[in-house]
Give the backbone structure.
Amino acid sequence: MIDDIDRQILDILQENARTPNAEIARQVGMAPSAILERIRKLEERGVIQGYAVRINPDAYGLGLMAYVFVRADERAGALTTAEQMALIPEVQEVHHVAGEDCFLAKVRVRGTRELGELLRDRFGSIETIRSTRSTIVLDTVKETTMLYEPETGGSRG
Amino acid sequence: MIDDIDRQILDILQENARTPNAEIARQVGMAPSAILERIRKLEERGVIQGYAVRINPDAYGLGLMAYVFVRADERAGALTTAEQMALIPEVQEVHHVAGEDCFLAKVRVRGTRELGELLRDRFGSIETIRSTRSTIVLDTVKETTMLYEPETGGSRG
DNA sequence: AATGAAATCGCCTGAGT
DNA sequence: ACTCAGGCGATTTCATT
């Protein structure tokens, strides 16, 4: 699906997504136009989903992060619980998870007061949500979106 | 700390971090050199921490995501538990959290077999870890790093 | 699917306001 | 702190292989 040259390009972009095309070409040892072509195709095929800037959340006034575990009973019709949570801008991630709690949401807000408001006003108004349990993040030691190269080959189909 | 023009620039970069400088200048209504200067300063001040490419994890061979809750007893000396977890490439995030479990780690691996190996070999060899509890992600409904503009003003100091 | 030439466009410095 | 001008380099298209 993606070959070795694609991986090289992706790895360079993972380090710095604003790396100029010509610089990537130098590192990979190909012509810039060939690199452009490959990046285009990676975008078309949905391998590259976009380019994000990493902003210090504190500087942005979003000093508090929390994980919210959501228990819900799904009903047919209308939007699903997860889709409604996904519409909330303070919610960065929504995952459907195995286990007793059905969903896990990652949220960023200014402070504890705003977290309370979020849970009461936004989560609280989603009909299917039975209960929530929040885990406050005190300190973030690592936070990256970089993907580790998995060992290829191996005994997996 | 960051003014309205900075916010405009950051918002454009949040949409697409590879947006050319000149394009940002057009949208903001300023000269490209002024935009460049502002971006430089945002980088210097650590507001902008970097630029990331968003890669489809499945295409990269990392189809399984899990959250690992880690209970540990901290000991003085050597690296802390969190720092040791942060060294593992499959670990994308490590948070120190409030509550019974001390840490929360987000991990991406190829499949369940690799998750097992990761927990046994890598987490298992960190001396201070008492126990782990993993929550498998079945489906990701939303996953963004975009920061929502918090309401400014308000009754907070 | 990659190259290389050529045109377009953006980057970035320096001077000036 | 921003604008403007200009040289340099990058991006991108296209013909070719």
Q: What stands out?
A: The longest strand of chain A covers residues 129-143. Helices of chain A lie at 4-15, 21-28, 32-44, 81-86, 112-123.
